[in-house]
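Work Package 3 (structural annotation) set out to generate three-dimensional models for the target panel prioritized at the project kickoff. During this period the team completed the workflow that converts sequence records into discrete structure tokens, so that structures can be stored uniformly alongside our sequence database. As a representative example, we reproduce one entry of 273 residues exactly as it appears in the project archive.
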Amino acid sequence: MLEEIVRNAPVFLLVAARSFACIMSLPLFSSRTVPRKAKVALAGYIAYFVFPQLSLESGTYAAYRSFVSSSGSFSADYIFLVIGEALIGLIIGFTVTLLFAAFSTAGQFFAFQMGFSASEVYDSMSEVENPLMGEYLNFIAMLLFLRAGGFLELFTDGLLASYRSLNVFSIIGHRDSLLSFMLSGLTGLFQNALVIALPLMGTLFLINVCMGILAKAAPQMNLLAEGFPILILTSFLLLFLLLPQLGEFFLGSFARGLRGLEQLFVRLGGSIG
């Protein structure tokens, strides 16, 4: 097997470039706390098992025959193939990142209303400052993702399936479909975030309206001091009650995202013989 990899090193590098780009863009794996050596080792491990199933004679990698010589020499065209393979891996990782970003964005929507807008923490997965409630929902989503075996399903039904149905030339020939998929992913991000945050935003809005009416009816009441504890306690109570539904919503959104990714592979790889 090692002799076969050495003899077809350019093909093995193409496979490893796609898997490495996917790992570098996935939540949790993209964190700096994960050693770079572990990421490279995992990418090589995936490429090692995928490589025997691929061939330059047939399948998706047959289109690379004229760019990868039998002697294994490299050229400028080959460098562009490596970049294209990395782009495919980034698309897969980008799709999963949007699912987690919906929970983080939902926390940003209602954090201001509940009085936690000034409390931000460092998100080690996305490496940005995130409101406390956004980080909490993101952490819950990651636990559900790990509990449901999301990474295993992603690698088997997402990454490995892309090797059988997608190559660089199919992306170039179907740029419109790829752009439409990216825009729909961003649209779905804000749609899912609004669905998650809407119950809390609506409830907190009603509480603020009631406090405004009480402040007009009884100006001597110090609602500013008592309003924030009420908003915070109500928000945590709603989160506690809605947590099972949030879990089901995330698992459903992940399943829909994975189906959309598979449909994209079918559309982009439809021209591959």
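The first strand starts at residue 120 and ends at 123.
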